[in-house]
Each structure stands twice: as structure tokens, then as C-alpha cells.
User: Which sequence fits this backbone?
């Protein structure tokens, strides 16, 4: 995305429950991190800043926890 000048975006809805729309990274009222929000934020920052040619979308998938 950096190569194409497309900014990294995550629509943080603040939802800390479970289900299809539970993709909050932090609580909007006090900024506390939700579940693994810090890990996701770190990955997004690393993705933007990492220029290693071996750091690809596939390498990220390969490290992702099994579902």
C-alpha cells in the first residue's frame, strides 16, 4: 500500500463484543485498548514502515493465528 501511496485504514467501531461487527481496537471514550488491538495496530504500523521485500501479504497470512 505504501508503494501505491494508499494510507492504511482500519474502521474502528469500538465494539468489544463478539460477532461479525466486533472489530474495535480501542474504546472511544477513554482510549483503552480492546483485546488484541495493540497487536493489530503494531502490525499496521510495521506494514507501512517495513521495506523488507520478504515482508509480504502472504508472510503476514502465514504468521496469523489459525481460526
Assistant:
Amino acid at each position: 500500500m505504501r508503494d501505491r501511496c494508499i494510507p492504511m485504514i482500519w474502521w474502528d467501531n469500538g465494539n468489544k463484543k463478539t460477532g461479525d461487527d466486533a472489530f474495535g481496537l480501542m474504546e472511544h471514550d477513554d482510549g483503552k485498548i480492546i483485546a488484541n488491538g495493540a497487536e493489530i495496530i503494531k502490525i499496521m504500523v510495521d506494514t507501512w514502515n517495513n521495506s523488507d521485500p520478504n515482508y509480504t501479504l502472504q508472510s503476514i497470512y502465514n504468521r496469523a493465528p489459525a481460526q
About this structure: The chain has one domain: 1-67. The CA atoms of residues 53 and 59 lie 10 Å apart. The helical segments are 37-49, 57-63.
